[in-house]
Structure formats: structure tokens, C-alpha cells
Amino acid sequence: MNGQRSVTAEDVARLAGVSRSAVSRAFTNGASISSETRDKVMAAADRLGYRVNYLARSLTLQRTELVALVVSDMDHSFRARIVDLLSRGLVKAGYRPFLLPWSDGDDAGRLIDMMLHYNVSGAIMTSDTPPGEIAAHCARHGVPLVLVNKAPVDAHAPRVLHDVEAAGRLAAEALFEAGCRRVAYAGPRRPSYTIDARRAAFLRHAAELGMRCRFEANGARPNYAGGVEAAAEFLPRAGEVDGVHCGNDFLALGFLDRIRSDGLRVPADLSVVGCDNIAEAAWTSYDLTTVTQDAEAVVSACLAALIELVEGEEEPAPTTVIPVRLVRRGSTSHRA
Amino acid sequence: MNGQRSVTAEDVARLAGVSRSAVSRAFTNGASISSETRDKVMAAADRLGYRVNYLARSLTLQRTELVALVVSDMDHSFRARIVDLLSRGLVKAGYRPFLLPWSDGDDAGRLIDMMLHYNVSGAIMTSDTPPGEIAAHCARHGVPLVLVNKAPVDAHAPRVLHDVEAAGRLAAEALFEAGCRRVAYAGPRRPSYTIDARRAAFLRHAAELGMRCRFEANGARPNYAGGVEAAAEFLPRAGEVDGVHCGNDFLALGFLDRIRSDGLRVPADLSVVGCDNIAEAAWTSYDLTTVTQDAEAVVSACLAALIELVEGEEEPAPTTVIPVRLVRRGSTSHRA
DNA sequence: ATGAAAGCGCTAACAC
DNA sequence: GTGTTAGCGCTTTCAT
């Protein structure tokens, strides 16, 4: 099935009546070649359907355009969005995204193997489950790596993350301004760098505003099901508080659904604030007040850092913090 | 930054005191080599951190493990799921997913260029916006291609799709069994192969069951916003019907939210059936009855077809239809 | 079982 | 500006 021998520069050269190198030059930006021969080459190439073999080229060039995209939890719509934006940005910048899915329990060694087998010129790691150990491998083997919303690692690798400190503060302020004075926090049991950092900031700022955090409720993972679980743990003590901050939006939505089916009204009985501003948060059934994480800004900073790392002279900033802002919706009461 | 010269088979050979070919053989499955020399090679390779350069290898082998994943609309969570499953499946099967994002208005030529530049050994196209024209290019250049949930194309390319006929029928039956007799259809204006085919099947089966379809309402795209738009168009005539089938779940959720905020109660006033069974459909706020499309089955059929195409002797089936089934939830009334 | 040598498709340094 | 030549890292006959 896969028969047809591919057409090579040699074939084109023969047809155009020039040398192999002329063909190469015709396809190399800024090579010294007369427009006349270039035209001849291009015509021949067109006729034969010739395409430069980038794999062969990368052999001589000692570099590829491949960039590994290490990603887990694609079912999280925020992550899917990031991957989408990243891959588009990479292509636009002349790179080719190479998808390396990561699952809990995978072998970090195999992952780094793949990167090296294919000689990727860089890698991007998003979501916090892939172990930091991978970063050390990348560093050792000279693979430029950028981390997105991930914990710092021992190895030197630039990171891009949204402003977790501000996010926690904004969540606390939003509850405060909604009139809340006694709050709680609902989060995942599974550790997550950004969620945990945000939680800490939230608790600190809540305390500063005089809103003591009465208790915390947990679900297993930072998704809808985790929110439902956290709500179940929360409900018996619901009367003690008037505001809740949830670890992320997915969790908040599950939390909302669960407490509502128990008869609690939002925001009358309780104000709720999430984080991420996923598309679903804006849906009428939820109308969730949340802290927005600007995916496009995160991605463009990430790409800038990677490109600087790969092509640039200077080191990119070790950490780029992307600003966040509050999106006020119906899940927090509006005080006059 | 990207300094370190990569270690080659030559280096390993020297350290192990053997020839280059011995090294190659040590890494080639089923090559004739004594376990003694293999051990020597492996030890040296380990010490140097040697990895076979697959790009160089592919030059001699005349084939790569690269598979292009042409994907658009990754913000659709169902698509993200498919991409996730596909990439994991490909990696497991020894292939490497190469992500080629597609946006409306992109140039099909550039896309095929990339595939050829990198000598991909196959391609998978999901979602129906990328033009069928790409398939013709693939065929002409001998790139094995599998289509997922896409319209048939002129070029010969195996397709995998869920059973649209059954899906339409199940939706009609679900409404009928919920007691509906006068129904409507809400869909996107933007054409979509699977959605359009499902609509046709739905209308036909509804008629057979004696439920005349009174009218159709449309939104622009098959997403939440499109559902809201369709609902706006629907509401003035809401009284004429007792059941609605929506083009897909995302659209159904927007539709639900919009009609509910107008005071309509589901399923008391109206039963609603979607299609896809996205995660959100199960959320308490929606509890949407829907036709489930088994993403895992779709993906494994797709991979099987691709692998058969690339490695196999026989042609895979031109079309693989994946069964669907109804998931009954709260958006349709239960009759005794 | 092993090494030498040729060649995969390409680019670049070197002569002219 | 153009052709010739060497070489990128690898696999694979072909001898031995």
C-alpha cells in the first residue's frame, strides 16, 4: 500500500538539468542562486511533487523543528484549550508539535527516551502530574524545557504560571465584598501545585480580611466528581459559613450541583467562587464567579520562553507570572 | 544553550571496542549478534547515554513512526477526548502522534506539505471541518489516511463513525417513549456530516412513529452558544411541541439553559434528547438523556484501520460503524 | 557473528 | 552562481 518511492532532490536536479545543490539552494532561504535556476528547479519540483525531506535535512542541520508537548489530563477542558493554543502557536512559529501523552504511573525514562530518539529541539510540560524528574533528564541531555503552571523543579527550566497569589487574594476579596465573613475552602486531596498555592494565598488573605476559614472540605480530584465529594463532606457543616472558595472551576461546578440538590441556594445562602474561568462556568445553570486565567497569555509567554531558549542568546526569565482578574457572576451576592 | 553534541553509534562502538554495525545490531530486534557483544554494547551505550536517532534510522528504513493527527475544534470536549485516546493508542502501538491543528480557512496544501516533509507513515483526520480535498492529496501521495466521523470523500480512505442512523432512531424512540407526539429539532446552521445525517434519521423515524416534526430551530454552531440561539428561535413556538432532539449535547445544554430561564420545565413541559454523551450531560443541572457515542470504541477501530493500512496486507473495511445506545436521564419523562 | 563499505536524502564548505 | 565533495547517524548487504 505504501509503495510509491518518494521523489528526491536528485530526481528534481535531473529533470531541471542542474546539480543537487542547486535544488537544495532553491529551497533554502537566502541561499545564493539565480532566480533563473530557481525557477527551473521550482518548475521541476512542482511537476514531480517534490517536498524537501525535513528528516534528512535535520540530520545535516543538527536540529529539528520538533517540540515535545507533554500533556496529561486532556479531559480537563482548560488543558485541551492550552494544548490547542500551544500547537497552533508552535506551527505558526515554524515548529512541529509532537504529542507525548502522560498518564499517572508512566515511566519517565520512556518519555525522555522518545524526546531524544526524535531529537526534539525543545519540550513543553503542562499540568502538574508528570514528575519533576523529567525536567532533570531534559537538563542533563540539553533539551530546552518550559513548564506551564507547574511546580518549580530542581533543574533549571523557565516556568510560566498564572498569578496564584493574586488569584487566592481575588477569591478572598470577592467573598468579602459579597458580604461573607465566615468562609470555607473546598479542594482536591490530590496535590496540585497551582491549586495548593492558591489555597494558601486564599487562606492568608481571608484571614487578613478578618474572615476566618472555618474548615475545609475535600474531594479526591480537582474535577466535577471531586466537587460533588467535597460538597458531601461540606454539607453537614454548611450552616457555619456563608462563602466558599473552590480549588478550580470544575470542582466548583460539582460542588454547586451537589449543594443545590440539598436545597442550598446560591448566592442567597452561600456565595461560591472558583478559579480558571472555564467555558462551563459562564453557562446559565452555574453563572459562577471565578478568577480568570488567561490561556492565550499563558501560551504566548510559554512560546516566547521556549523560542528564546532554543534560538535566542539570552536566558529567558526564570519565571513569568501571568496576571489574573476576577469575573463577577451570579454565584456571589452583590452588595450595594 | 543547545550545546552538547549528541552521542552517536560511533562513540558507543569505540568505547565498546566493536564496530558501528555491532551497535546497530544490538539495537535492532532479531539481528544476529552474540549476547556477549550485545552486553558490551549496552554497557557502553548506558554509560554514554546513547539513544538511537530515529530520524537517521528512518532515512535508511524508508519509513517513520510518525502519524499526523489532523484536528480542529479541540475546545469541543468530545474531540479532546478522542485526541487524547488516539495519541495514547498511537504511542502504545509504537507510533508517534504529530499534531496538525486545523483552523477554518487554513490552506490544505500547507497541511499536506507538512505530512510529506516529515514523511508521516499515516494520518488520522477527525472532525468534519478540514476539507475532503486533503484526502485526495493523501491518496495521491500514498499517505494512508483514516477518517473519524467524517463525510465520505472521493478518495479511497477508510472511515470510522458511530451509527448515525441508529442514533437518530434512538433519539426519536426516546421521545416517543417519553410520551411525546409533536416534536421539533434543534441544530446548527453550520453543516456537519454526522449531525446532518443524524437529523435525517431522526426526522424519518419520528415520522414513522407518527410524531410529525413541527419545525426546526437553528443556532450558528453546534456548541453551547448555538443551543442558546436555537432556543431563542424555538421559544415563540414552544407550545406546539412536547419533545425536542438537539444536534449534539453541547447544543442541547445551551438549549436547556435558555428555555429554562424562560420558565419552561424539563421534562414536564418538554422532553429533550441530545447526542454524544459528553461528561457535562451527566451533570446534575442538566441530567440530559442522550445517545452515547463510545469514544474508546471509535478510537480503537480507527487505530486498527490505520495499522492495517500501514502494516497489513489486506485492505481494512471501507467503513466501520460503531454501535450507539441510549442513556436515559431526567430530561425525558418516564412513562409508566 | 562480525567488520567494511555503500547508501538513505540532504546541506555546506570548497573550488571554480 | 554553480557543481563537486564530504558528511550528518544510521542500517544493511556483502565478505569473511
Radius of gyration of chain A: 26 Å
Shape of chain A: elongated
Percent of residues in β-strands of chain A:
15-25%
Structural class of chain A: alpha/beta
**Helix segment count of chain A?**
12
Protein name (chains A, B): DNA-binding LacI/PurR family transcriptional regulator
InterPro entries (chains A, B): Cro/C1-type_HTH, HTH_LacI, LacI/GalR-like_sensor, Lambda_DNA-bd_dom_sf, Peripla_BP_I
Domain HTH cro/C1-type (chains A, B): 4-55
GO molecular function (chains A, B): DNA-binding transcription factor activity; transcription cis-regulatory region binding
Would you spell out the secondary-structure blueprint of this structure?
The structure is a homodimer of 336-residue chains.
Chain A: H1 9-16, H2 20-26, H3 35-48, H4 54-61, E1 66-71, H5 77-92, E2 96-101, H6 108-117, E3 122-126, H7 133-140, E4 145-148, E5 159-162, H8 164-177, E6 182-188, H9 193-208, E7 212-219, H10 224-234, E8 243-246, H11 249-261, E9 271-276, E10 289-293, H12 295-311, E11 319-322, E12 324-327
Parallel strand pairs in A: 1-2, 1-3, 3-4, 4-5, 5-11, 6-7, 6-8, 8-9, 9-10
Antiparallel strand pairs in A: 10-12
Chain A binds a DNA duplex (16 and 16 nucleotides) through residues 6, 8-10, 18-25, 28, 31-34, 37, 52-62.
